[in-house]
Amino acid sequence: MMMHSSGTFDYTFIAADGPGSGTRRLEGTVRESRTRDDKRLLGHAPLLVTQEYQREDWQLYSLLTLTPRDQNATVQSFSFSVDRELIKMLREGDALHISRTPCAGLGLSVLRDGQLVAAAGAISDLPLGPDVSIGTPFDLVREAERIFQTREPEFQLRNCPVELRIGNVTRMIDVGRPKIGAYDIFVRHGIVKGMPGKDSCVSIERIRVCPDTASPLSGIDFETGGRRPSAVSVRQAAASKRRRRTGIRILR
Q: Where are the beta strands (DSSP E) in 84-131?
């Protein structure tokens, strides 16, 4: 069963100042059209606060906490971590898009002057600019399944490859770290079939614009992070060395 739309979100935040800090405060808006009483996990216009912290001496992160500012939310807050450099690199006017899918996949993308700078996680339905697109070649998957089914009638591909287009180059990738044009790519996996299944997990970073490893580390964090109570301060979390990375506070 897929998640109800009230458990999802799709927000846009515009950076108000230049690069240099992993601690920021941004006001967001919901990206898709909505009715007045349409529920989303954090409502229609959440506040995003980011705070720098360290899990270990060599791990520098930003904790992103979203809190609702209207009556259309179903939780009090939602938090997760990304590599600190992904937040520090934001410049004034950059568009930060963050979403949670019906399969509970987290994704984010950063556009600068309409061009993709970085993306991580479940990014298939996020804005990626005019030169980048990502999807699943279901027509080819079905064709491949039919070939295998000539010997095994019930055969199905559980893991589907990613179809990635950058400029005039199109690649089919199940897993790997290719470089395509001006971008470094990390495909952790494509869509995994099931109920509800898993979104693809991909990171893309523009070379010499997005710091190395910022997108891949963040994408892995989205997938492997556990629960982290958002009421716990960043300082306490770092001191206790907990590895829990996402947290939701439920409205009561």
A: 95-100, 106-112, 115-121
Q: What mean pLDDT comes out for the span 162-183? A: 94
Lookup: tokens for 201: 């997990």
Distance of CA 4 to the CA centre of its chain: 19
The candidate with the shortest Cα–Cα distance to 135, out of 166, 112, 103, is 166
What strand order describes the sheet that includes 132-135?
A: 132-135, 162-166, 169-173
Sequence-ordered list of residues with C-beta below 8 angstroms from that of 96, at least 6 positions apart, any chain:
12, 13, 14, 15, 26, 48, 90, 108, 109, 110
Total domains, the chain: 1
Q: What is the pLDDT of residues 212-236, one digit of tens each?
A: 656 656 655 666 553 333 333 323 3
Q: Token pair for residue 16?
A: 């108000």
Q: What is the pTM of this model?
A: 0.82
Domain that holds residue 213: 5-250
